[in-house]
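We modelled each protein-ligand pair independently. The example shown here corresponds to the 2-acetamido-2-deoxy-beta-D-glucopyranose entry; the chain sequence is given first, followed by the ligand as SMILES.
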Amino acid sequence: MKFWKLSSYVLAALVSAAAASGPSDGDAIADPNSAVVKLTAADYQSFIDSNPLVLAEFFAPWCGYCKQLAPEFTKAANSLNETNPNIKLAQVDCTVEEELCMQHEIRGYPTLKVIRGSENKPDDYDGPREASGIVDYMVAQSKPAVQTIESADAAVAAIADLKKPAVIQILPADYKEGKQKENSTYFDVASARRKELTFLTIQDSDAVKALQDKFKSLKASKSPVYIAIQPGADDVVPLAEKFSKDALEKFITTEKVPYFGEINRETYLAYMTSPIPLAYYFYNSPDQKEALEKTFNDLGKKYRGKLNFVGLDATLFGRHAEILSMDPETIPLFAIQDVEANKKYGLDQKKNPNPSAKAITKFVEDFVAGKLSPIIKSQPLPTEEEVAAQPVVKLVAHNYESIVKDTSKDVFVKYYAEWCGHCKQLAPTWDELASIYDSNKPDANVVIAKLEHPENDVDVPVPIEGYPTILLYPANGEIDEKTGLRVPVTFNGARNLEALIDFVKENGGHKVDGHALKEAKGGVVEDEDDEVVEEKKEEQEEKDVDHDEL
Ligand SMILES: *[C@@H]1O[C@H](CO)[C@@H](O)[C@H](O)[C@H]1NC(C)=O
Ligand SMILES: *[C@@H]1O[C@H](CO)[C@@H](O)[C@H](O)[C@H]1NC(C)=O
């Protein structure tokens, strides 16, 4: 879950950088006389059930990128209607069909999904956004996931035409499906992962012979053989493990990317869904990339299955450096991102303004040996004056652990982002709450704290899926094994003083009664009419159901 959040975050940066040309002004709704089908909640189900392959665009009429897409989408629909009438293009207007769009978890416009009947989970469309690209992509989607090769010529042509890495099943002439169900397993896996690679199956003995002539690693065998091949490569990689569904899946995940690839809109998915760390070389010109091509190919081969290596064109996607906590102005740069562990490692840009093959190789060796420290992004520590002046304790990556790991205190943390409207609304209440507990004083039992989350790399025991996320680490609470922090209690109530005070009293280890403290300080809660407080609370509750999404 966390992983997907992160990858969509990365993707957002890549795509927003790529879409720099900006939206246009036309109509987002396709011409009603075109072949684009307008879907509503009433006819959605029957349409999906009666059409085997649908590309659905979930859109809003006001959205600029939807307007930009509309003419291309229409052109593609009309063209497919002529050549491949089984492939349908449809539109769902999310300002009208809110329910339908919610079911599909639509978070941005336009969102395009490839839908194969209602029994299969819709797939995200990650293809081009101009007419001929959409047509090609959808025609490829309509073909069987596994291509059967039946002659030597077809085998040679298929290898020569590869645009993506391929996995090939080679069956002996007398193959019979046994207990292992190798063939049907292969077809099932191919069907699920057709977007990632090209899948071929070969049983014809001439075709097998043609491949054996071409690739020296390919040996004759009496049982099924599985190999992977990169476009243009002069040899193949055999599946070394004993065949099983898991072994095949792992093989695909490793072999779907080249030793040194390129990350861009077409390939990001392959890299982001790979569980292994990704090493980036950011370059500004093809020459810069070419100069290190051999180094990276060698490193890619050596560390296959441990690290993926990619080039990134910084003139297009340079902003991605910020996500790696690197300076986008100093290119070329080299950095490693461990997406699963949420850690980043960068080759020092001041010492290596133009990283050499030697420096990169050493850095990679140190990474694999576990000798590198990750980059920790942090805002500066607050000064003593700032601490004294602010009732709310300001957390940054550098003081986070010392404060949040102090198990003698109830630590109540607001994780926020600078741009988040709901967070701004809450700020005065959060200040008031902090004043009640004298939270910035050394002897406070309750610490009211805030952390600007995107600016500080910190561990959080629960996934942060929106801002603000408000967590209470109770004094003497149970310890979360992975982070060493306490297991937090998430605050999901109405974001008003009453509810926050109640929450600290109920869930904190010290059970501090903030109402009493407030009264002692001359608070005014009791002066307010109870009914009015209730009403306000309800109002606030309605207003606050939503977080700002990441
Ligand atoms: C779709 O194709 C059919 C058959 O060629 C044609 O009759 C129909 O007018 C086309 N529809 C659109 C909207 O182009
Ligand atoms: C392998 O499975 C596919 C899909 O079920 C089937 O079409 C094909 O005939 C099978 N091949 C062999 C050799 O059993």
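Confidence is low (pLDDT under 50) at residues 1-23, 524-546.
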